[in-house]
Design brief:
Two copies of one chain form a homodimer.
Chain A: E1 2-4, E2 6-7, H1 11-14, E3 18-21, E4 28-31, E5 36-39, E6 53-61, E7 63-64, E8 68-75, E9 81-85, E10 91-99, E11 102-111, E12 116-119, E13 124-125, E14 129-131, E15 135-143, E16 150-160
Parallel strand pairs in A: 1-16, 2-11, 7-14
Antiparallel strand pairs in A: 3-12, 4-5, 6-15, 8-16, 9-12, 9-15, 10-11, 10-13, 10-14
């Protein structure tokens, strides 16, 4: 078993893998006669391949407890995928670099209940890992033709502590 | 002042105007080795016009208290617009039919804290009206070229009680 330490989730640390969907540090402006603040364009929604469309779904993720074992990672070559917490609970985010078409050098982060993440297309990531309770997430990803899922199972899994 | 009564927010009542983004009654299936339930494709994301792209933003809406006056409504001819509560608080949703390029016969609904709404393109709606506190909403709408905003100010406003 490989061991994986949790790193602070900062915009610069996460930038190679996607966007953090949060109000903090975001460009914002007033709309609706001043009654609404729009924190604008927080995720780069990528739609590739044939007949792409944007899907809005809700994922209900079961609760995971530490230590958490990462046995596999996946990626979506044809589109980005955003997860935004609807229950204000944190979740574990594990992403990896691509080396020879396999996930390598994984990084683990904890997104707070007011932070979503948007994985860029083709970025290796672990599947939804809710913490502190069964939790719902708004998901913005891609529908359309073509195979948009690639999975990799590790020979030696990672344990996040 | 015209008076507007609140109607129950049901899928059939809201169908002419858009989608209710909720898990109840939604098509769902298990993914991620059974650890996640995907409530799939809850909003019809419409992207029209030149160079459209999907925007993911957060709107922070100030709190409104009843009676609430609706002085204007707007519509977005080039794209749908979804609002999903991030703080589990309800909000007021007012939509209208189009008669001679003006909003007419408005309907008022209250979306619960676990219900989002997605306005179809070109549907007249009141602007964000948060209830029970300043609240954040995940918004999925359209960016791109062209004028995507039309506003109508009523001669006689509506009061929602």
């Amino acid at each position: 078993m490989n061991h994986l330490k949790i790193e602070p989730l900062t915009k610069s640390a996460f930038a190679p893998f996607g966007n953090i969907v949060e109000t903090e540090g975001a460009q914002s402006f007033k709309i609706n006669n001043g009654t609404t603040t729009r924190f604008h364009n927080l995720a780069d929604v990528q739609l590739r391949g044939e007949n792409p469309r944007t899907l809005v779904s809700i994922f209900r993720g079961e609760e995971f407890k530490f230590p958490i074992e990462i046995k596999m990672m996946e990626r979506h070559p044809l589109g980005s995928q955003a997860f935004i917490p609807l229950n204000a609970r944190p979740f574990l985010v594990v992403v990896a670099e691509d080396v020879n078409a396999k996930p390598a050098h994984p990084h683990a982060f904890i997104a707070k209940g007011n932070q979503g993440v948007n994985f860029h297309a083709n970025i290796w990531h672990a599947t939804l890992t809710a913490l502190e309770g069964v939790s719902d997430f708004l998901v913005v990803d891609r529908g359309g033709d073509g195979n948009n899922l690639e999975e990799h199972f590790f020979d030696i899994s990672y344990q996040v502590e």
